[in-house]
Amino acid sequence: IYPGLPPFTIAERWMERIFCNAADALTTVSEELAECLRARYSTPVTVIHNAIDMRVLQSLGASRAFPGDGLVRFVYTGTIYESGQRPEVLFRALDL
Fold first, then answer.
1. Residue 45 CB neighbour total at 10 angstroms
2. pLDDT per residue over 31-47, tens digit each?
3. How many other C-beta atoms can be found within 10 angstroms of the C-beta atom of residue 38?
4. pLDDT tens digits for 16-36?
5. Rounded distance between C-alpha atoms, residue 44 and residue 20, angstroms
6. 47-56 as b/e, with b when 16 or more CB fall inside 10 Å?
């Protein structure tokens, strides 16, 4: 929450240890962080690369996910947070 600011650093380390040790598995997007987590915890760590696996992409075939109706669709699979990750700016920019 407050990096580098005691007593929050102590509390965050303590909470991280509790959650990571209680988890069934940990995931990360880099091998470097995975190695760090493996050194700290006995919980299994899996790297899920933040990229497209071209073999999977090619195996999808040529069928379309959406109809060819000329519409532009934005698909966002993340979380929208009230504190700042909101789509209003994008919607205002698209409002021509």
1. 21
2. 999 999 999 999 999 99
3. 13
4. 999 999 999 999 989 999 999
5. 10
6. eeeeeeeeee
